[in-house]
Amino acid sequence: MRHLFFLMIFMAILISKPSWSRDLICCVSPVNGVYEVLILDPQTFVYTQLTSGDHDKRHPVWSPAGDRVCFESAGSLSIIEIRTEDRSIFKSGEVKAISALDGKAGNPQWISDGKIVYTHFSEVQNDHTSLWQVELDNYRRTKIMDRPYLDHQCDWSPQGLVWVGGEETFGYELFLLRNEDEGPFKLTDNDTNDFNPRWSHDGEKIAWQHYIETDSVIVIKELFSNKIKSFGFKACFNGMPSWSSDNRIIYWISSHTGEFSLYKTPIERFDPVRISPENMRILDPDVMEFAE
């Protein structure tokens, strides 16, 4: 009976054991002089290279289901399918290109599993960019915004679309559009530049990169309370923020050590930990939670 009792306890532990879960980061890093898309495990420093070729890849983003990564390269967007097995990442298909219209496409952002929002750099009207929606099942394109102050960095959430706009002479600011009827309004209004806005997954906060002269810090704003906090290493680049799946941690890039490395910190206090391998240059991180 005693053996049966301990066996029952052991089985209960097995049954109640939580499933494996972790954040994985898609990013870009130089490989033989060309920026390639990598998947980095911040717990083990192990990374998987997804792409190769002659052109730089930038701004990779996970699909909501975590089964695809979209990125920009040579003026067009591309998608690669991903699968996980035994806690490892594998490509499950070839890279599929989405050709631009009559210009250059960049900075992809997923709306849902079947749609992507991206900015389009027009070579005919190069004084501004426009925002397009692409349906991946039929590649139908729809222009959803065309304003002269729309810059190439944006992020979408069910709470609205946030983007960078303005002119270099007067400073780049963040704009938020909740619906077309109300129109956009400014999130920031200062004499310096704000870039790389990123929604938290719960849609309650926005993080971005704020310049102070030649250096920059990470800023977090709670939209409902308007509370603002900032953090970062002093006298260096701090930028390209990305949220953990539970919205409690910010990943970001810093040149604190002289190289562009990936760090993380709890948003409640500045407690930085470098999570990219030493001497490995990392840019454009995007975080996704995986579970098995």
* Radius of gyration from CA coordinates: 20 Å
Structural class estimated from helices and strands: mainly beta
Runs in which pLDDT lies below 50 for 5 or more consecutive residues are 2-20
CATH top level class name:
Mainly Beta
Cα separation of the termini? 34 Å
Let me know the largest β-sheet.
5 strands, antiparallel
Could you say what the CATH topology is called?
Answer: Neuraminidase
DSSP helical segment count: 1
Integer count of domains: 1
Strands, total number? 25
Please write the string of helix (H) and strand (E) elements: HEEEEEEEEEEEEEEEEEEEEEEEEE
Strand residue content: over 45%
Mean pLDDT: 81
Global geometry? globular
Helix content: under 10%
Looking at CATH, the homologous superfamily is TolB, C-terminal domain
Q: What would CATH call the architecture? A: 6 Propeller
Report a brief summary of the structure.
Helix content is 5%, strand content 55%. The chain has 292 residues and is mainly β.
What does this structure look like?
- The protein is mainly beta and 292 residues long.
- It has one domain: TolB, C-terminal domain (Neuraminidase, 6 Propeller).
- 5% of the residues lie in helices and 55% in strands.
- The chain contains one helix and 25 strands.
- The strands form six sheets. Strands 4, 5, 6, 7 and 8 form a five-stranded antiparallel sheet that branches. A four-stranded antiparallel sheet has the order 3-2-1-25, with no helix packed on it.
- The chain is globular and about 45 Å long.
- It starts with a helix and ends with a strand.
- The relative contact order is 0.13.
- Residues 2-20 have low confidence and may be disordered.
